[in-house]
Amino acid sequence: MTPRRPLTARLLRSMAILAVAWLTLSWFMVLVLRFVPPWTSAVMMERRLGALVRGERDFHLRHRWVPWSEVSPYVPMAMVAGEDQKFPYHHGFDFDSIQDAMDAAEDGKRLRGASTISQQTAKNLFLWNGRSFVRKGLEAYFTVLIELTWPKQRILEVYMNIAELGDGVYGVGAASDQFFRTTPSRLGPAQAARLAAVLPNPRRFKADQPSAYVLSRAGWIQQQMAQLGGPGYLRGETPPARRGR
Fold first, then answer.
1. Residue 130, Cβ neighbours under 10 Å: how many?
2. Which helix (H) or strand (E) covers residue 218, if one does?
3. Domain containing residue 139: CATH number
4. Which candidate, 69, 85, 134, 161, has a CA 20 to 30 Å from the CA of 10?
5. pLDDT tens string 36-57
6. Residue 113 backbone dihedrals phi, psi, to 5 degrees
7. 146 near 122, Cβ under 8 Å?
8. Closest CA to 244 of 215, 219, 208
9. Antiparallel, parallel or unpaired: β 62-63 and 164-166
10. Residue 242 confidence class, pLDDT cut points 50, 70, 90
11. Tell me, what DSSP letter sits at residue 54?
């Protein structure tokens, strides 16, 4: 009769199987989404559930996927200029910005965001809002998977299609319809900059009714777009620049 394995050994084996299954499933999801447009995201699902729990009967989530070829090149350029100017050159993490944010926190200054577009895509697509260490750890994990599996253009394509650009308005397709009554392909640099300018707080700031802050930030983003060299910057045709904020 074969002796039973000790309980500890059985638990370790079960944990190892679960870990391998999790790694395989998560990588498979990322691989599939390199080619298949996501029909929703974790953040959109969280928003729907939150509205349901709070009894927001008038809430209507707007989202429409638009492929890269049907979006004005000013849109991804504006998002890179405003959110992550080192995007074409880093591998998912901007360690200089992380260090700057840590230094600012130590000096008692306002908390600064240091998440790259790759990190924001990972969080928006697979995770939930919040600042827990568990979520940040999972965000880093999915960021690595995305950077290893997707080309940079795909990361930007997914990001601009799932980012919240207004209260309940997700992605450039819904935003261009809702705020500018036009198609994403017809958005000009000023409109693209205004969409990127609301990203710090899209439920407070409005692209179609911009406050003085949004107009000022949109103007700065347009300047950065020009200084970086325009859409060619996303193809690595110009050298990286230090973020201007």
1. 10
2. helix 212-228
3. 1.10.3810.10
4. 134
5. 999 999 999 999 999 888 888 8
6. -75, 140
7. yes
8. 219
9. unpaired
10. very low
11. T
Rounded to the nearest 5°, which phi and psi values hold at 130?
A: 145, 175
Distance CA 172, CA 50 (A): 23
Residue 3 lies in a domain: no
Judge whether 38 lies within some domain: yes
User: Token pair of 54, please?
Assistant: 């709070």
Token pair in block for residue 175: 């935003």
Q: What is the pTM of this model?
A: 0.86
* The amino acid at 197: A
Higher model confidence: residue 206 or residue 104?
206
Q: What is the maximum alpha-carbon separation in the chain?
A: 79
- The rounded distance, in Å, linking the Cα atoms of 111 and 113 is 7
Q: 5: which 2 tokens?
A: 């394995």
**CA 112 – CA 29 distance, rounded (Å):** 31
Say how many domains are in the chain.
1
